Amino acid sequence: MQAKKKLDIQLNDGKIIQFMPDMIHKDLLSLTNNQEIVYRTERLILVQLASYNLIKLHELRMIIYRTLDQLRYHKIASKYYHEELS
Asked: At the top level of its lineage, which domain of life is listed (predicted)?
């Protein structure tokens, strides 16, 4: 049986924290109450993160933004961009 792979996030100040999937869930819920959008986006993001051991916070935020945009949730992607990336 394969153990779950650990993912760490490097914050802007260099500090490393452990990634918890509910971080993304909470971020997405702050953007929309539509559970289908949250579920679809969250699953696609988690698949993309499976190849990482360490990710910079900005890169994680870009993955979230690009995933929302790719799923054609353009208004939500724009809202996320203005709240987290600008």
From this structure: Bacteria
Identify how many contiguous H helices and E strands the chain contains and give both numbers.
4, 3
Determine contact, residues 45/29, Cβ cutoff 8 Å.
no
Distance of CA 9 to the CA centre of its chain: 11
Q: What is the pLDDT of residues 43-58, one digit of tens each?
A: 999 999 999 999 999 9
Distance CA 78, CA 49 (A): 21
Q: How many CA atoms are closer than 13 Å to the CA of 35, on its beta-carbon side?
A: 0
Q: How far is residue 76's CA from residue 12's CA, in Å, rounded to a whole number? A: 24
Encoded tokens for 34: 């539509």
Record the pTM: 0.91
